[in-house]
Amino acid sequence: MQNIIFLIIGVAIGFFIKGRMIKTPTLKSPDELADMRVEAKEAFKERLDERKKKILDFMATEAKHQKELQNCSVADTKPGITSADIEKLLDVKEDTARKYLNELEQEGLIEQIGTTGKGVYYKLK
After folding, report:
1. How far is Cα 73 from Cα 35, in angstroms, rounded to an integer?
2. pLDDT tens digits for 63-122?
3. For the chain, N or C: smaller number of CB within 10 Å?
4. In degrees rounded to 5, what are phi and psi of residue 22?
5. Spatial distance between the Cα atoms of 55 and 114, rounded to a whole number of angstroms
6. What DSSP letter does each residue of 82-125 carry, written as one string?
């Protein structure tokens, strides 16, 4: 009987302490929210720029490699980089890879060869 009383008291104390330790969320002021949005946008832009640079570096390396293969008379060379290559490089979904490639194309850094489907690839300008 004594053990049951200690158990009940222990459980009650545990719930009391838990209730005291849980913090209620505090609402942010409009200025704090605005600052958080600005920081998030800056972080997103930095990440996007890093990924675009990684794509351009990859394309430059691949172009150099392809040129070396052509100089060695290797017939099996790729014409350029595909969205599937970017998916693997950045570990992103197909739509995200295409979005990055389209943005780089709009910026005039790469060009798309082909219009749709598996025949589409990208080259540095």
Report:
1. 57
2. 888 888 777 876 666 778 889 999 999 999 999 999 999 999 999 999 988 877 777 889
3. N
4. -75, 125
5. 19
6. -HHHHHHHHT--HHHHHHHHHHHHHTTSEEEESSSGGG-EEEE-
29 three-class SS: coil
Residue 62 amino acid letter: E
Dist CA 63 CA 106 (whole Å): 20
How many angstroms separate the CA atoms of 23 and 93, rounded? 37
Q: What is d(CA 112, CA 122) in angstroms, rounded to the nearest whole number?
A: 5
Task: Specify the 3-state DSSP secondary structure of 81.
Answer: strand
Q: For residue 113, what are the β-bridge partners?
A: 121
- The set of residues, in sequence order, having a beta carbon less than 8 Å from that of 93 and lying 6+ positions away, is 87
Candidates 124, 117, 119; CA nearest to 101 is 124
The encoded tokens of residue 3 equal: 């053990």
Residue 97 in contact with residue 56, Cβ under 8 Å?
no
